[in-house]
């Protein structure tokens, strides 16, 4: 839509154009050029100003904006060429809007109609004068002229008191239709509504509220991996700001610095940016980004949210990082600028940014989210249990809640849904979406939201990020020793050439986008053991399960498992031979070894079983009773399956498991296993065989730990007699 306005010797042409278009304009009168120029718009509705110094041209431009009924408009041709790409576009030869200019065909038609009409009027006047005489005609013309003047005055008064008619909506094509379609593409700056109560984020909301209420403004970065509810938290903060009568603007990042410039310029205009400063930027006398932030710094009481800035290096202008504070994201405003992002690096956002990192929800708030969505699906305790299984990830909780609230779902309770997850995870939480190629859809689907981060990392040059994360997902959802993740392991799994620097950079990028974490190292006297004194990486359990669903292109599950088994075997050997120095690594390796034993062939079973048994012995020496119990249980289950329940090796492993239970303080379970082992050994080996005597002694120790001292003493006395 075009609109002419008048200001002294200037005429401004407003035209709605596609984003990132270039406008060339030319104004002519009766074939003579009045003004021309070219303008790259800063917003969809922008101002192109044509200034003329010649008096004749100044009259043309001023009349153009005011005398809509004048025939002078018909003599003015305005040509506008909108170029959305390089050299293509649409030429508009008429002007529509508040002041309607006539096209060439209407001008020609008007002249053709006016010529015979004028001739007929002139002939009629001549005939009337000849018929009634000159004196009578003069008197008659005075009466007619006076009457016409009074009628014209009355019409003018009515027109001045009446509102301007509203043009009917334009359907279909034409310039009006094009304007409507272009304007409809502009997103609203209103914050999205929060659909449900925000649970478990009280401290973060209080922090944001205090920053909004402060007078210093600043830059706040709400960061974390996909699915943590960053947008929801920002929307809730924006809603609170609106209740405090703040001017709130919501901008959705579209990976386009020009679009962000457009949005922030319009916001600055809404906050009072003078047209003179905007003209300075248009004419190159000032940088637009500086002009906009000059206004944002001068005005208080606003809040701007830029949502989902997952590619901060594209914020612009230029290639400088946002932390340089020379681009569109700055901490200098009189209000609060809030950015949501997956990039958690302090170096990205600079020293003056206030980072608000989000973590998964605890069990109780997770259960509350599920109960909000599906209140009839079970109790608070059942909801909390499911929430804990889903890792407290708000996106997963929302997915499960919507599923359970659907009356056609196969599972309608929290408990049934949780029981189905081990076998149907890919169909429930990890279900694919048919429109996942759209990033706005992908970020709302658990199966695809992490792919957005991985795709961005691949685009940024971290080609090992996806295969490295997939290898981690094939291990147990527990911390992994960083030393285990070597270039040789990645090379064997992917068939690519891998260097240590490339692998280090990929893990750093995964950490930056929240896809892996590095558990903190506790103080030496905290009682946390030695496991956290070595470098390690971990994945969120739900991220682990989702990433494991789909192998990266060119990666094979079997090849990856073979590489993992080979390197795990070698790492366990190195750890057990290292003595005390290997204890921290042994504790971290333990959760990842049961699948190794399950995948081993029958021919290699004994060697792998011995490997785990040796590591369990190392863990016993290290006092890592939980990890010792895990491996002992795994070995016993495997031997029972491969060798049978009465095999001597199986009985030895059962004894080891009972010892591990006793060390954990689970004395009754230990006593029960020792009694079963004693009975089986007496039957298979006899009452006086050394292994039988060992089982009887261990049972006596377990009974003594239970406080059943007399029974323990009787068993010790019997053992002494039999020896």
UniProtKB/TrEMBL annotation:
GO terms under cellular component: cytoplasm; kinesin complex
Pfam families attached to this UniProt entry: AAA_22, TPR_10
Key words of the record: Cytoplasm, Membrane, Repeat, TPR repeat, Transmembrane, Transmembrane helix
Superkingdom, taxonomy of origin: Bacteria
Listed GO MF terms: kinesin binding
Cellular localization per UniProt: Cytoplasm
Residues covered by the ORC1/DEAH AAA+ ATPase domain: 216-310
InterPro entries recorded: AAA_22, Kinesin_light, P-loop_NTPase, TPR-like_helical_dom_sf
One example of a Gene Ontology biological process annotation: microtubule-based movement
Cited SUPFAM superfamilies: P-loop containing nucleoside triphosphate hydrolases, TPR-like
Transmembrane segments: 112-134, 140-160
Protein name according to UniProt: Tetratricopeptide repeat protein
């Amino acid at each position: 839509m075009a609109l002419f306005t008048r200001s002294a010797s200037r005429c401004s042409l407003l035209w709605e154009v596609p984003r990132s278009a270039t406008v060339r304009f030319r104004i002519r009168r009766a074939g003579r050029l009045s003004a021309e120029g070219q303008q790259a718009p800063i917003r969809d509705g922008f101002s192109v100003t044509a200034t003329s110094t010649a008096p004749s041209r100044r009259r043309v431009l001023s009349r153009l904006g005011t005398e809509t009924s004048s025939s002078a408009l018909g003599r003015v041709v305005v040509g506008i060429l909108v170029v959305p790409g390089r050299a293509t576009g649409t030429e508009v030869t008429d002007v529509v809007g508040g002041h309607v200019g006539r096209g060439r065909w209407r001008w020609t038609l008007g002249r053709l109609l006016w010529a015979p009409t004028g001739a007929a009027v002139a002939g009629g006047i001549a005939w009337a004068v000849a018929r009634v005489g000159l004196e009578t005609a003069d008197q008659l013309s005075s009466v007619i002229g006076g009457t016409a003047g009074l009628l014209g005055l009355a019409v003018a008064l009515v027109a001045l008191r009446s509102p301007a008619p509203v043009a009917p909506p334009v359907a279909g094509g034409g310039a009006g239709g094009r304007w409507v379609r272009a304007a409809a593409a502009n997103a609203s700056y209103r914050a999205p509504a929060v659909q449900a109560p925000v649970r478990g984020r009280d401290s973060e909301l209080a922090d944001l509220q205090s920053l909004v209420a402060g007078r210093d403004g600043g830059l706040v970065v709400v960061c974390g991996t996909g699915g943590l509810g960053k947008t929801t938290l920002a929307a809730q903060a924006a809603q609170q700001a609106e209740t405090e009568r703040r001017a709130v603007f919501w901008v959705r990042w579209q990976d386009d610095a020009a679009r962000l410039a457009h949005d922030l310029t319009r916001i600055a205009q809404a906050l009072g940016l003078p047209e003179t400063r905007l003209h300075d930027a248009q004419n190159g006398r000032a940088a637009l980004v500086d002009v906009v932030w000059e206004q944002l710094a001068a005005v208080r009481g606003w809040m701007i949210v830029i949502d989902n800035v997952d590619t901060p290096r594209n914020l612009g202008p230029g290639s400088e990082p946002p932390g340089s504070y020379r681009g569109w994201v700055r901490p200098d405003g009189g209000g609060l600028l809030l950015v949501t992002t997956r990039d958690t690096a302090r170096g990205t956002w600079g020293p003056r940014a206030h980072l608000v990192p989000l973590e998964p929800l605890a069990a109780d708030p997770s259960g509350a989210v599920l109960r909000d969505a599906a209140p009839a699906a079970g109790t608070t305790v059942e909801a909390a249990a499911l929430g804990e299984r889903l890792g407290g990830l708000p996106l997963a909780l929302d997915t499960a809640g919507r599923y359970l609230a659907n009356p056609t779902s196969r599972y309608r309770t929290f408990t049934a849904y949780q029981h189905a997850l081990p076998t149907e995870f890919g169909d429930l939480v990890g279900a694919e979406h048919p429109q996942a190629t759209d990033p706005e859809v992908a970020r709302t689907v658990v199966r695809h939201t992490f792919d957005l981060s991985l795709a961005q990392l691949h685009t940024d040059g971290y080609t090992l990020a996806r295969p490295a994360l997939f290898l981690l997902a094939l291990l147990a959802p527990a911390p992994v020793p960083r030393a285990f993740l070597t270039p040789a392991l990645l090379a064997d799994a992917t068939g690519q050439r891998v260097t240590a620097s490339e692998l280090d950079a990929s893990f750093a990028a995964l950490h930056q986008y929240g896809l892996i974490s590095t558990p903190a190292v506790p103080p030496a006297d905290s009682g946390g053991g030695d496991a956290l004194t070595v470098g390690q990486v971990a994945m969120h359990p739900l991220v682990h399960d989702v990433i494991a669903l789909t192998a990266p292109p060119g990666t094979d599950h079997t090849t990856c498992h073979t590489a993992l088994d080979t390197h795990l075997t070698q790492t366990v050997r190195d750890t057990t031979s290292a003595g005390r120095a290997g204890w921290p690594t042994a504790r971290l390796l333990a959760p990842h070894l049961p699948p190794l034993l399950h995948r081993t062939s029958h021919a290699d079973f004994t060697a792998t079983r011995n490997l785990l048994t040796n590591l369990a012995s190392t863990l016993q020496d290290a006092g890592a009773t939980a990890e010792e119990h895990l491996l002992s249980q795994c070995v016993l289950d495997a031997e029972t399956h491969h060798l049978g329940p009465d095999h001597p090796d199986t009985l030895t492993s059962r004894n080891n498991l009972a010892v591990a239970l006793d060390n954990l303080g689970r004395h009754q379970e230990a006593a029960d296993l020792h009694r079963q082992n004693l009975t089986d050994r007496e039957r298979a080996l006899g009452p006086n065989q050394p292994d039988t005597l060992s089982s009887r002694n261990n049972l006596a120790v377990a009974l003594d730990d239970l406080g059943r001292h007399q029974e323990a003493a009787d068993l010790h006395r019997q053992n002494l007699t039999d020896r």
